[in-house]
Amino acid sequence: MNQLTSILEGFGRAMLLLIESGRHLGTLPRQRARFIEQCYLIGYTTLPIVAILCFFMGSVLALQSGYSMENFGAKQFIGSLVGLSFARELGPVIVAILVAGRVGSAITAELASMKVYQEIDALVTMNIPPARMLVLPRLAAVLVMMPVLTIIGILIGWFGGAVVCTYVDFISIEPEAYFAALRSFMQFKDVGTGILKAEIFGFVIVLICCSIGLNTRGGPREIGASVTKAVVASLISILVLDYFVTKALL
Amino acid sequence: MTCPLHRNPITAVEGPAVGVSIEHLSKNFGRLQALRDVSFAVEPGEIFVLMGPSGSGKSVLLKHIVGLEAPSDGRVLIEGRDATAEGTLENVRIAMVFQAGALFNSLSVYDNLALYPREHRLGTEAGIREKVMRALQILSLENTAHKFPSELSGGMKKRVAIARALVMEPQLMLYDEPTSELDPIMGATISEIIATLRDEYHVTSVVVSHDRELALGIADRVGILMDGSLVFLGAPAELHAPEDPRIANFFHPKIDLKNPRFKSLEA
Question: What is the pLDDT of residues B203-233, one digit of tens each?
């Protein structure tokens, strides 16, 4: 019962923070320096790890499907399988998990530390709403950067599949054939679905991490506990939302 | 209350100091009663020092004045406005100097000071620079402008926190233990700064402190909180020979090795 109350309380706090941030939407143009800084932190610094992970996820997917499909002569469909899986599911989910682990944890740690060391209180006394200065630019930046990261992740995932199909002996499919199969089953709608999912995941991650960070009380141990809580809550939210969003978009 | 207009030497802005009225303030944290029916008023331009043993509710009271805590009962009025009401901080400039400084650790000293005017769009970047450098100059901190808070000593952090408050052109300054963790010379320096700011800028100052020298040296009036209740309110001179034994014990504690206090606390 306590756990449920705590989850509902957390949800309520996050909603209030969202409303409070929305009230300051008009200040975004004059916060462009902060917005650009957040785009850099969320997008540019996450890009290398997205690239590495998506390349190898694409490779493994092609390898596993090649191994299974070889038995019933369906190797020519590997491109379609990798293409659709990455565009609709793996791309957005992998990017969201990486953003939760890398960016979400950093956001929570920073805001929790500011809360514990009274920097948030100082902002309030200076009549600078933390939602305006600390949350709004992050929410805006994640909305801009998630599609970019997801598109790059999907393309690299497809490329990873193509490399495996070309160079692994028991699969041995020419890149042209791989991409032709990929194109024959893909529609722009599939990539659009992936991007929409990534947008939702990214927005929820940043909101959860900001809310948990800003509501931290205690000392260094509680900062660590908040980071863990934020990352776990983000990961669970990604997977739960993934099911419902996928079902709604099918 | 009269609110005389004074010119702020940093900004040349004229503004009235504000009065604070604490009315039957009580605060509970669960079963713990941190404040019990506390009432007093601080006049505009006054230096009011709030003293008391650790855990007596001084900092909690200060947080009520700036609206960081909401009362369980009673109210805090700043120039007639409820401290927790939306818009009070927009209409009354209240600056707080936190015990640990609460400087923004990821910003340089210069950016710490420039944050308030930048966020509230109080002038051009050149104008803000002038204000910030003037505030740093007043507190002899010109050479720290590009340092980060982690590179400063305790005394410097306190002075930067005061300089940051000064840039806000405050009508009310709240100080939470401004001389704690400082050596006696630096403590005296901070006390002198507080008194000078009041004299030159005419801000109302509420100072929470354990520092007897500070209270006797610069306060217009002193309040003493014990276990959440206000047990003394008067001029500092009255504290030289207090009648209340609790206040006498707080102000002139004697070290008694034969009958140590912690033993009686344990009992």
Answer: 999 999 988 888 888 999 999 999 999 999 9
Query: What's the gap in Å between the CA of A98 and the closest CA on chain B?
Result: 25
Is A117–B119 a contact, with Cβ atoms under 8 angstroms apart?
no
Question: What does R_g of chain B's alpha carbons equal in angstroms?
Answer: 19
Mean pLDDT over the full length of chain B: 87
pLDDT for the residue numbered A58: 95
pLDDT at A169: 87
The string of pLDDT tens digits covering residues B146-173 is 999 999 998 899 899 999 998 998 999 9
Q: Has residue A91 got a pLDDT over 50?
A: yes
| Residue at A43: amino acid letter | G
| Nearest one of B117, B118, B120, B166 to B141, comparing CA atoms | B166
- The domain spans of chain B are 5-93+172-179+199-266, 94-168
Contacts of B67 in chain A (CB under 8 A): 124-125
CA-based nearest residue to A214, from A73, A136, A113, A64 = A113
ipTM of the complex: 0.84
- Asked if B96 lies within 8 A of A122 by C-beta distance, the reply is yes
- CATH architecture for segment(s) B5-93+172-179+199-266: 3-Layer(aba) Sandwich (3.40)
Q: Which residue of A has its CA nearest to B97?
A: A122
- The string of pLDDT tens digits covering residues B227-254 is 999 999 999 988 888 888 888 888 877 7
Residue contact B104–A122, C-beta within 8 A: yes
Q: How far is CA B135 from CA A131, B38, B140, in A?
A: 28, 35, 9
